[in-house]
Amino acid sequence: MDKTLSVNRLAWKLVENLLDNQDFYGVKAAKTSSGATVVDAGLNARGGFQAGRIITEICMGGCGKARIGFRKYDDLRLQSITVHTHHPAIAALGSQLAGWRIKEGDAVAIGSGPARALALKPKEIYQELAYKDKSDRAVLFLETDKPPSDALIERAANACQIKPENLVVIFAPTTSIAGSTQVTGRIVETGIHKLRTLGLNPHMIRYALGHAPIPPLSREVEVAMARTNDAIRYGGTASYTVDYEDEEALRKILEQAPSKAAKNYGKPFLQIFKEADRDFYKIDPNLFAPAVLIINNVKTGRIFRAGEINVEVLRASLGF
Q: How many domains does one find in the chain?
């Protein structure tokens, strides 16, 4: 892992591209009273797949690439996103992870992207990675259906220890193409986060690649949220190249990693969510994982696979 990488500086180059080509990406940028730049990528702006693709790369701190296309899932041929990175720990945990809870009045906004590596949110992740970014500019992404308030922008800038005019906040709702694309573009990050909770040291992961379907849009927030969850949990595949000494331990970790290991596996996420009284904390956390994980251990050359694509649940969730 290259700890000299600056996820904010790398992502800033992508942000400049986004801002210089707003019509192409279908986004709308505006300055706040404090001088920060706010980019609407799907609320009142048109957004689209290209906006979702570049936002995915921005959220990965410029340390990964994304591509939009079609993939076949049994007899379904679905629009999909493929992502890859050769800096998986930093790209996924150090940047893309939606791990920054920013209080905004009575609500909490969840932030992701490179700005986290300046604010060190959550701190334990960066202690484990032994990584902190150094940059006088920051990029934050919010999955929300309302523009960020001045108070939120001030808190974010202060946490990053930068001037507000050097902060760019991009936002998009899950009910938009850009929003749903960047969610399913977290397929690699979802797998790394799950492997980490099971005891796999993320520093051991050399390369990562994954793909997941981009679900059809729904104007209903809960339906859109559930579809993106199901796209990863029942249709997503993540592949990792690792350098691991204890292969038996690696095999046991992998067996527990796919979403199929969850006790409430096998139902559309909307049904699971309603049965849990719409409380994420009542849902078995083992569900939040890719459908399939593949690991290639370069120490031995062996390949291990766990999980399965569940087209039946995918079909029901996506409305086919």
A: 1
